[in-house]
Structures are given as C-alpha cells and as structure tokens.
Amino acid sequence: MASQTAVQCVAATSRRIGLFVVSLLSGITAPISAQQGDYVTGDVSDGGAIVGQVTFTGTASTPRRLAITIDTVVCAREPQFAEDLLVGGGGGLQNVVVWISDIREGKAWEPRHSPAALAQNGCRFVPHVLIVPVGEQFEVWNNDGILHNVHTRGTENRPVNKAQPGFLRSVRIRLAHAEIVHVECDAHNWMSGWIAVAAHPYYVITDQDGNYRLDDVPPGTYTLQFWHERLGTETQQVTVTAGGEAQVQARFASR
Amino acid sequence: MGTPRISVLVAAVALCVVAEAAAQYAPDGNLTSRADLVRAGRRLYLRRCVFCHGSSGRGDGPVARYVFPRPRDLTLGVFKIHSTPTGGLPTDQDLFNTLSRGLPGTTMPAWSNLSEQQRWALVAYIETFAAAFRTDGRLVPIAIGTPKPPLPESVLAGRRLYIEAECWKCHGMLGKGDGPSAPTLEDDWGYPIVPADLRISRNWRGGNRPVDIYRSIAVGIGGTPMPSWADALTSDQIWDMTNYLLSIIQQ
Ligand SMILES: [Cu+2]
Predict the structure, then answer these.
(1) Where are the domains of chain B?
(2) Are B2-135 and B152-248 the same fold in CATH?
(3) Which ranges in chain A belong to alpha helices (H)?
(4) Pairing mode of beta strands A105-106, A250-252
(5) Is A16's pLDDT higher than 90?
(6) Measured between CB atoms, which of A6, A70, A162 is closest to B228?
(7) Helix (H, G, I), strand (E, B) or coil at B77
(8) CB neighbour list of residue B26: distance below 8 Å, 6 or more residues apart
(9) Checking DSSP bridges between strand A192-198 and strand A180-184, what pairing results, if any?
(10) Given phi > 0 = left and psi -120 to 50 = alpha, else beta, which region is A82?
(11) CA distance B70 to B56
C-alpha cells in the first residue's frame, strides 16, 4: 500500500517536474541603492558649487538601432536607437546621475507646480533618466494612445507595475526608498528608462556633453557618486568652500 | 535527452521521500509568541520546503534547477499573490492562502495537509527571509466588493474592454497567451514568462473564483509583466472583465 503510493507519487511528481524542465540562464541587473539617511533642510546662504564633466574613455560605437517589432505605426514612425550609452562632445557622457551620497543637511527641494513626470512618447521613456524626490508621487504620461505598462524594478522598492492603456493619459507612482530604479514597459521590450529616487535635492543628470552642476552646497567635505546604467559607479571626494566652485571630473571606461 | 530524464526521476524520488518523512512529523503544541511561531516554522520549512526554496530561502534548493517556473527566491520580498495594491507586500493572510492553495500550474504544492497552526508558523518564518517585511509598511488589501452578475451585457462590456484595454497584446485575441508582446516577456527574477492561457483557469496562480480573478486584474501578479489595472479600469469594469473571462474559460 505504502509502496504503491510511493510509486504513484514518484510518477506524478516526475510528470510534473518533466513538464517544467527548462534550463534557463539569465541575470537580473540589480540597480544600486543610494544612501538614504535623515536629511535635514534649512537655508544655505554660504553655499558653494560642484561642477565638472563626466567622460567616457573607451571608444563608443554608434548607438544600436532598436528592432521595433510591434505597434510599428506608433513606435516606428522614426528609427529608434538605444540610449544606454550616449557619448557627446569631448567624450562627454550623457545621462550619468551625479549625487552627494553623504550629505545630512542642506537646501530644500525647489517648490514645483506639478509632480515630476515621465512621458511614454513614441514608445520611449522621455526623459531617459528622471530624478524624483523620495516618497513623492510622480506622473507617467501616455502620449501614444496605445497600451503601455509602467514596471519599476529596484532592490529596495517593491516592483510596481501599472497598466496604462491608450485611454489612460496619466498614472501616478510613489517610491518610498532612495535608489536608482529601472523602468520598463513589458508590452514593448525595448522601452527602458531610469528613475533616480533622490533622498535630497543634490542630485543632477549630466547633459549631452557630460557636464553637470550642483549649487548651494553647504561648505564641507563630501562623497560624490556617479552612476551610469551600463558603466557602473564611480566615487570621488570633494571639498566645497563658501562661495567656491569645486571642480570634479569623472571618467568611465568601457566594460 | 537521457540525463535530464534521470535527473527528473531522482528529483521526484527525493521529493517523495521527503513527503513521506514529513508525514511523520507531529504538529507542535500551543505556540504563544511570535518567536515560538518562527521556530516552529523553521523546523517545518527545513523538512518541507528546502528542497525547492533552499536553506537560505534563495529559491536554490537541490531540485530548483529542474523546476519551471523556478521556486521563489524568498529573500527578495517579491510575491506573485497579494491582495494589496501593486508594489505592496502580501498580507499574512495572503501568504497563508497561498500556502493552503499552492500555486496552480506550477510545482508549488498546496499545503492543506498541514494544520492551520503549522501554516501560520510557516508564514511567520517565511517573513524572516526578506528585509522588506521589517522595513516596509504593510499596505491594506484593496476592496473587492460583491461580484456583478454575469449577465450578457456585462460579458459583452468585458469583451469590448479586453480589446480596448489591449489585454490581447499579451494574452492574444482568443486568450491563448500568444499576443504580439508575449515572446519577449520576462519576470522580475530574470526568467522568460508566458502570459496565462485565459481559457485554462485551473493553472492560474491566484485562483479562479470570481473574487480571485477580480483581484488578479486589479492588483496584477507581483513580479511579472501582468500589470495592475486598478488605475485604468473602474471596479465595475473589472467585474465586466471578470465576467468576460468566466465566459471564455474552458477548464
Ligand atoms: Cu510600451
């Protein structure tokens, strides 16, 4: 009796496992987590600035052309290119998030009239990298009139995944932990953007030529972090003096 | 093809031996504190769950690599079944329900043969794996309300929505799971995933009662491309959609 059950069990279980045998290899890119502490805001009257350029030292090939396979009428109106490595004038590296990781006290966020917003436009996330204050709602717009979905992936934040059909112009999302989070649309697998959930206002994104500037930094010595979606992170020390302008350049090599 | 077959057999034998041994396990006495519960849960986990979920909960037990979808990595705090809004952790009750029912269509068994107390102990222990259970606030389950009668108008409205809201983009026009976006879908653990076949509801992870279907549409299936529709559809529309799905289910 017992052995018969055992035989049945083995048969049933192996059938079940057999059905599911697939060996798959793939890794999850784990976005790094920004330091999150108790940040105190106040007036910064004697602040200095941190300015610089982030450059790419490798040879950048021209951005990869994306294969648009579905919703071509809306998504392939013009050729689309990968935005994961954009190198501009003088090797300047665009879309690097630069922030002070160990600042405890400083300016308040500038008041805004409307929440930070990420648009889905021609089946791309615009801007490619967006800074959002931690714990604050931000909007995602659908300008395309077709289904997208907004799917965030971080390590500190639980994944959020909201459907945004063509008739839903705007959805709101709130992320409670400071870290850089990947945003994807599962419906269009090439759509990729990033949200820097910022613990304080000293976050900036490098422009087309890799330049950045952080203003109103209280005098002191800080750790400056540089993050690029493909090239990883760099760290530098910087000392800011009252009314001064500290120059900090960063370099990323190809990986 | 020979080796995988043998491996499957070995895995199956291992699982059954485990199940046999576990059957002799006597339930605990009265558990008073959370710490007691966690301890009891740990003992049960080591007997019943390690083979798939691994001793550290990473979903890397000895049979994990023969199993698709893979056993959950319990340390990441990402769960498919939750009654809370998207981005929320499951409630204790959600985890209890998942253990009681299993995850249909996968190798995750139903643990209804364990006593309720044993299942609660497992819930307490599982929650020690992911830091999120300590650092994140727990969200409140969404309101589900009472099902709308599956009258023809409701079914028809649901059918229209299925097209307009583009469920078909993943699930396909006939619900077979073969929409244009289906081939490229991936879950949050990095594995390819197929959209559910909407005609075969016995394989749905979150159950196929009207309230289960409503919940799965409203909050989505955590960690997968199946999104939450709570912001996109009204409660009335989600019931219409539920009624439409109930009308196309074949088994
Ligand atoms: Cu999209």
Answers:
(1) 2-135, 152-248
(2) yes
(3) 2-20, 72-75
(4) unpaired
(5) no
(6) A162
(7) coil
(8) none
(9) antiparallel
(10) beta
(11) 15
For residue A144, give every residue at least 6 positions away whose Cβ sits within 8 Å of its Cβ, in sequence order, or none: A74, A75, A120, A121, A122, A123, A166
Which residue in B89, B132, B190 is closest to A28 by CB distance? B190
Q: What residues contact A36, with CB distance under 8 A and at least 6 apart? A: A134, A156, A177, A178, A179, A199
Nearest to B97 by CA among B179, B182, B194, B212: B212
Q: What value does the mean pLDDT take over residues A65-93?
A: 93
pLDDT in tens, A114-126: 899 999 999 999 9
> Closest by alpha carbon to B7, among A131, A22, A44, A171?
A22
Determine whether domain B152-248 maps to CATH 1.10.760.10: yes
Give the C-alpha separation, B139 to B90, whole Å.
8
Give the DSSP H/E element, type plus range, for residue A105.
Answer: strand A105-106
Q: Residues 151 to 180 of A: which have CB under 8 A from any B CB?
A: 151-153, 156-168, 171-172, 176-177
pLDDT along chain B (251 residues), means of 10: 41 42 39 87 97 96 92 96 97 97 95 96 97 90 93 98 98 97 95 96 94 98 98 97 96 76
- Two structure tokens written together for A124: 């791309």
| Geometric angle at alpha carbon B207, from B203 and B211, rounded to 5° | 145
Mutation site for B-interface testing, chosen from A4, A13, A140, A156 by largest number of B Cβ within 10 Å:
A13
Q: What is the ipTM of this complex?
A: 0.87
Residue B9: per-residue pLDDT: 42
CATH architecture of residue range(s) B2-135: Orthogonal Bundle (1.10)
Place of tokens 């985890």: B95
3-state secondary structure (DSSP) of residue B169: helix
Q: Note the helical H segments in A21-149.
A: 72-75
Residue B50, Cβ density class (10 Å: 0-12 exposed, 13-18 middle, ≥19 buried): middle
pTM: 0.88
